[in-house]
Design goal:
With 420 residues, the protein is α/β, with parallel strands linked by helices. Helices cover 36% and strands 14% of the residues.
Length: 420
């Protein structure tokens, strides 16, 4: 069972009634009314967590994939930027397809913390969907064989980013890799997420290797993150650069040969752009889908009483994919161990070889990973009761069971216990 998180709404009946009051519903109609004059169907969706880059990346992207063909107009209603900031770069990436409507009515936007279903009211579809329900529905959409419609950045956004990089001295068209490492400097008040954090020094051998190969490494992230101090001028710590602007997160990711990511919001930029990424220090979760060229490596899960590493089959059998907080892992008796510098370096080298077409995959390892993933999903679903009215956003998927998911084979070869 997952834990509730304080950044998600937890309100009593009176507050719920106020959020869904007649006055707020009227505010919704007034806000989206001008868009409905365009003709065709309009979808309205509240996005209260737009300040979190993973949410503003993924939620509009999933709406466009799930509802784009049937709804010419899709509106994402967010808090006014004066109350809650958001990534302007990611917003501009979406805006050819998504209309963002800012509101100072906080209770109106808070509707996005609730989940029911997509309600059709004449030409308006009011998508009362929580993020977890939206993520689940998209994985089910992929299971049904539907394609992923990735984004292409607008030309003016790319040109602006290229011009800014040139002014910063990075205009030599050198091949690049984007790096993101989540550490405890980001949102320290959300300590329940600290199982997702990592030490950037463990990435230094991989960074050194990329520099030796002639890549420029653009580190992205939050200005509160630990500084990346590296002697090479090819390593650029963007969030601490005096000329940094958040459009560079999108532009650098769009132009990178690949990205090195961790389990944190900026990895979503790579996914929606279809930039290949190697996600290291990941964790097992129900609705995190990957693209066909992506590569995955979990942190090592250890059983606290014995100290023994937990293999993939046991991770699935213990339903550890449902744990997503520090307390949840503590109750499960599990400790998560960061990938070592050697493991990260090996994963990065494997990624290079896969993109070069020189990597020889072990089909037996690949088949074993997928067989375990699929068997777990079938077993888990078979035990689920019928979905009740209070279970509209429950977990029903395991996205790593999608057939194109690729797990890091260099790790599996060096650690045979993982697939036992």
């Amino acid at each position: 069972m997952t834990d509730s998180k304080p950044e998600l709404a937890s309100v009593d009946l009176a507050a719920t009634q106020e959020i869904f009051s007649q006055a707020n519903l009227q505010s919704l109609v007034e806000l989206v009314g001008p868009l409905m004059q365009r003709g065709g169907r309009t979808l309205a969706y509240m996005l209260p967590a737009a300040s979190r880059i993973g949410h503003i990346c993924l939620e509009p992207f999933l709406l466009a994939n799930l509802y784009g063909e049937s709804h010419p107009t899709i509106a994402a209603i967010i808090h006014d930027h004066r109350f809650q900031g958001h990534s302007r770069g990611v917003r501009r990436l979406h805006e050819p397809r998504i209309t963002f409507l800012e509101s100072m009515n906080r209770k109106l936007v808070m509707m996005g913390h609730f989940n029911a279903r997509a309600l059709d009211i004449g030409p308006l579809t009011w998508a009362v969907l929580s993020p977890s329900a939206l993520f689940r529905d998209f994985v089910l959409h992929l299971e049904a064989g539907n394609p992923i419609r990735h984004l292409t950045p607008p030309e003016d956004l790319l040109a602006e980013g290229k011009s800014l990089l040139a002014r910063m001295g990075f205009d030599d068209d050198r091949p690049s890799v984007v790096l993101h490492v989540r550490d405890t400097g980001y949102l320290p008040e959300m300590a329940y997420h600290h199982f997702r954090t990592n030490r950037i020094e463990n990435y230094l051998p991989a960074i050194d290797h990329l520099v030796e190969q002639g890549y420029r490494v653009f580190r992205i992230g939050d200005p509160t993150s630990v500084r990346l101090n590296h002697e090479s001028p090819l390593v650029v710590d963007l969030p601490h650069h005096p000329d940094y602007a958040d459009i560079l997160d999108v532009c650098c990711m769009a132009n990178a040969r690949f990205a090195i990511t961790s389990a944190s919001g900026p990895e979503a930029i790579a996914r929606i752009l279809n930039t290949p990424m190697v996600m290291v220090n990941g964790y097992i979760q129900p609705d995190h889908w990957l693209n066909t060229r992506d590569l995955l490596l979990f942190k090592t899960y250890r059983d606290k009483p014995t100290g023994a590493p937990i293999g993939y089959d046991e991770m699935l059998a213990r339903d550890l994919f449902l744990q997503n907080t520090v307390k949840g892992f503590e109750r499960a008796g599990v400790a998560l161990e960061e990938n070592s510098p050697e493991q990260i370096l090996s994963a990065v080298k494997e990624m290079e070889q896969r993109l070069d077409g020189t990597f020889s995959a072990d089909e037996t390892l690949e088949a074993r990973f997928h067989d375990l993933s699929r068997a777990h999903l079938e077993h888990y679903r078979a035990a689920l009761p019928a979905r009740g009215p209070e279970e509209q956003d429950r977990f029903e998927t395991y996205a790593y069971a999608l057939p194109w998911t690729r797990y890091c084979q260099s790790f599996m070869m060096d650690n045979p216990w993982f697939l036992r």
